Prior knowledge:
It is a single chain. The protein is about 65% helix and about 0% strand. The N and C termini lie far apart (about 95 Å). It contains five helices and no strands. The chain has helices spanning about 5, 25-45, 50-70, 80-105, 120-134. It is flat. The protein folds into two domains: about 20-75; about 80-134, no CATH class. The model has no long low-confidence stretch (mean pLDDT about 80).
Amino acid sequence: MSAHHDDHSHGALQMGHHHVSSSAMFFNVLVALLILTVITVGASRIDFGSANMLIAMAIASIKASLVIAIFMHVKWDTAINRIVFLSSFLFLSLLFIFTLADHATRRWDHEMHTTRTPVDKQWVYKQHEHAGDH
């Protein structure tokens, strides 16, 4: 066989450089994720008003970024893979923005948007009125 065939085994894929992470780095990420989880639980017990969701999403985004960058090795991946991965978050954020915009523009006080349940007093009284008719 020639030197060309020795370098490239038949049909083998050349996957490029693989990053090997140290166990200390994984341990540091674990500690950071645990600390952020404690912060999440602590923040959930405090009423920040309308900022509750924003704070929870910010902490969750930091945790997700750590997992994506370190455990999924995106930190050491090629630029095109980073762009594709980050663009998925762009479209996810657009989904959230349009959903929240729709939610903010709805009129919730109209009778059409209320759901009557069996424990609703109006429903229970109507049932008793109809039962007396028989």
